[in-house]
Amino acid sequence: MPLTAEMRRSIDQIRDYLFGGGYPDPVSNAEQLSFLFFFFLLETIDDENRKRAEVLKEPYTSIFDGEWTLRSAETSAREGWRIEATVLRTAAQAIPRSRFRWTVWAREMGGQALVDFVGEQVFPFFAEIGAAGVHDFMRGARLGIHDPTVLTQVVRLVDGLGPADADSDTKGDLFEHVLRQIKQAGELGQFRTPRHIIRRIVEMVDPSIGETIYDPAAGTAGFLVAAYNHIRLKHSSPATIVEVEVEGKTQRRGLGDLLTPEDLDVLRNRTFYGNDVDPKMVRLATMNLRLRGLDNVRILQRNVLTSVLDEASKEELGLPTGGYDLVLANPPFSGRVDKARIVDAVRVGSTSSTELLFLKYLQDSLRDGGRAAVVVPEGVLFGSSAAHLELRRQLVENNQVDAVLSLPGGVFQPYSGVKTSVLFFRKGGTTKRVLFLHVDEDGYEFDAHHDTPHEEDDLPRLAAAYAHREASLSRWEARERDADWNEKWWFADAAALRDNSYNLTASRYRPLGRSEAEHQDFLELLDDVIARELELVKVMETLRDMVREYKA
User: Fold this and answer.
1) Could you give the number of structural domains in the chain?
2) What is the C-alpha separation between 508 and 467, in angstroms, rounded?
3) What is the CATH number of the domain that holds 197?
4) pLDDT band of 482, cuts 50, 70, 90
């Protein structure tokens, strides 16, 4: 059962009800809703696991088997707690764990009794489950909806979604739609990456079984989930591949029925890795992965710009020690880190810009020959500071930059209108030439929210040009030099890059016919001006910080 428009409207209704009920913070609301959805969906996942074990004749212990010792027996005996007898027996020291099934407490309780039970028992119950996993993602989690009427109504609305027969993909889609409500940037300038952009990037890098895949700024684990779905699709028989509608676009999904037990073990336990500095994002990412059957993926709460893991620590945490095969990331765009806290391994000159420091870290995180696809603000590609120049020199001279995918301004609405590009590179060697891919349309209207689908979409053809780079290069080299070039992709060799201070913006090398040279696209010019203005602001902020340090 795919995620339906009615389900999406119901989730939006829950969001609006929370806002109107006196809970205006979108991040906190998304986190609270995510907890409730996790409690709601985990029951059906547990039932699926039990049925699968029965078919395979394997032993299985449900998370709802046995008894639960109440976190406060004295509290449970209070008359004022008003716990209904069908859910909690007054004065009992323990209750059956089956009472923590959503279909029990969420449907039998309401009002203050619901608030007390969820806050004092349900959260600790699922925190215990979280602590038993590879990451204690529920540590510190608390109920944040204390109004009895609001919580009762929200629980009823969640229960009304009723996808008990939905597959794990639909459950994941439900969870992802909740995460879309996070519409503000983090303190370091991190933004939620549009899922259609993530899926296209993953399709282009084409991850495979046996590769280690890492996102050092994982957010809600969008890149890791997309890589998992891509690998499953690659290992699905035609009969098990279905087309579903997601965010107004058709998407192919596969069951991964051709994966062997050994493949599944590798995929679930030794493939995906991530970090995030925000504990809320770590929780959301872990829940997102767990709902898809990836219980053993470890998302660390860690700022990679201010901390270092030695080889012994990596081994203890079960992390690859020789670098990762594939890094997928959308690092923070606009934040800054206290210079005194930046570790030496990621320093680039005197810069404290997170986008530059992250790019240095990403290079060092790859094994020799490893690949990366990373979203960067346009200023990284043309900035003139010493740190910008040195970082681009390292990219071109010490790595193989395969391509730059230039995205239009507005892709990251409603967070930011900043123009971005995606860098595709491999660690080691030297860059001979770069394929530039220019996107004018990405399949969605460039309005305030960037979520209304339309037909125009350059991404499929550009992804094909990237996938067949050798054929694309042959076409490029065989072109008539004076004729207009009508494709939205082109090449530049390393000599041209060096002559232009290693500038990696697509527009710098775009071949213009006579008419285009006279009438360059106005929107493209505006994007370029905005990107340069933003870069100038950063330079001025750096100068201001230097003056303050000098005066101090």
Assistant:
1) 2
2) 23
3) 3.40.50.150
4) confident
